[in-house]
Amino acid sequence: MMAAAMMNMPDRFVPRFALLMMLLASLALPSFAAEKLIALTFDDGPRPYVLFGVKQPGAASAAASSATQGLLDVLERNGVKATFFYMGWRLTPKTWGETVHETNIGVTCLEAAHEVLRRGHEIENHTYSHVNLRLAERKKGEAWVLADVERGAQAVQSVTGSKPLYLRPPDWELTDDARRDLEARGFHILTISSQLPLALRDVNSLDYLCTGKGVGCPRPSLAQSVLKTIEQREKKGVTTHVLVFHELTTTTAQMPALIAALKAKGYRFVTVTEYRKLVKQ
Predict the structure, then answer these.
(1) For a Cys-Cys bond, which of 35, 80, 174, 185 suits 169, CB 3.0-4.6 Å?
(2) Would strands 83-86 and 240-246 be described as parallel, antiparallel, or unpaired?
(3) Does the predicted model carry a pTM greater than 0.70?
(4) In angstroms, rounded to a whole number, what is the distance separating the alpha carbons of residues 169 and 206?
């Protein structure tokens, strides 16, 4: 159709017409950032023993092994600002974590969250209860799901002073109806859905498989596995990535190597809010 239109118009108008058609075509396609961007994100916190580290018994100084260094210090030494998706129940007074699995270092989750904010990181919503929202809706109804998300947002707002814009549902599980209703309330929902362009999908690092005995942990290392995933996305022309990790000591240990490798590849680290401003649909 374009070729036929060009054949029927005076020669002096052809270049202008072609330029106009190219411009209209570009507007119909997703617009992604020209630079290389990483939004580093961490779920399931705040976990003070991960954020600040745990000093080894008998250690001569505060310097500990890579497995016990604090995530906040790692990020600060590398000049990286990250985004933390927090559970609302952890942001209640006098809460320091799960007594069975987590070490009490004398810092509450709420105190840790304020320190995260003070260091310039972003805090967003990971719901209040941290349950599978698809299953919860089946058992309790959509109204319960919406209330749990709002309750989580209120908990985050009590720390940051403003309502969080972004929501990552636990395990990305959410019904279409709940998604539409939450978006109508102003929430931007992060997802791994194949319905979105690659640049707008979360990248699941699988770091949770590296805890305990590490069964299923990516090989040869978590950092190398993430780098391989990024290389595969780059081959498809995607140079912007939202990386999903969790507040885990095993993940903290991999961060220095991963951040260094990504910087060497020319990537710049941004928060999710910055990322979404630069990487537009």
Answers:
(1) 174
(2) unpaired
(3) yes
(4) 16
